[in-house]
From TrEMBL:
Protein name: Uncharacterized protein
Keywords: Secreted, Signal
Species assigned in the record: Aedes albopictus
Assigned protein family: Belongs to the PBP/GOBP family.
Position of the signal peptide: 1-24
Keyword flag Transcription regulation: no
Cellular compartment(s): Secreted
Length: 166
């Protein structure tokens, strides 16, 4: 599969359906509503975009100009559930750029839950609500930890479906 085609597929199945370490997403909801609300975009202020509004490949190229990341690095993320080096901020900032260009994270670093659902990045808002508590650190780290949490859920759900097929 071509690298950018693979990137497109990954974006649609979990915005790269990546990530998932055992220290990733908290699967419990501590119900810190104020913290969650502070991280969510106002849906009326951030209308959802359709997939026709941008190209995943164009977003990759544009973000990669500022935050250079190799496809190998993204493949590692896809295969293992995390970046090989979680202290390197450049790939985390690439993720932030990518999520912003896709409309999932706003320019002021809030999560557009409706866009995440509209793109099929999450099945429902509960995933976003639960993952908001993982958004700590600087803006790039918050975007990465959000992605890691959401992707952990995708990986866990995928494994669950695979085990049911057997």
């Amino acid at each position: 599969m071509k690298p950018l085609t693979k990137l497109s597929l990954l974006f649609l199945i979990g915005l790269m359906a990546l990530l998932g370490s055992s220290t990733g997403c908290s699967m419990t909801n501590n119900d810190d509503a104020d913290q969650r609300d502070a991280l969510l975009a106002d849906p009326s202020a951030a209308p959802a975009r359709s997939m026709k509004d941008y190209s995943v490949e164009d977003i990759y190229v544009e973000c990669n100009k500022t935050f250079a990341i190799s496809m190998d690095y993204l493949n590692e993320l896809n295969d293992t559930g995390s970046f090989p080096d979680e202290t390197d901020k450049t790939p985390m900032c690439f993720i932030r750029c990518f999520l912003q260009k896709g409309g999932i994270v706003t320019e002021d670093d809030k999560v557009n839950k409706e866009q995440a659902i509209a793109l099929g990045w999450v099945k429902n808002g509960e995933t976003i609500d639960d993952c908001l508590q993982d958004m700590t650190g600087n803006p790039c780290e918050r975007a990465y930890f959000l992605m890691r949490c959401v992707s952990t859920r995708h990986l866990v759900e995928g494994r669950s479906k695979d085990s049911k097929k057997r």
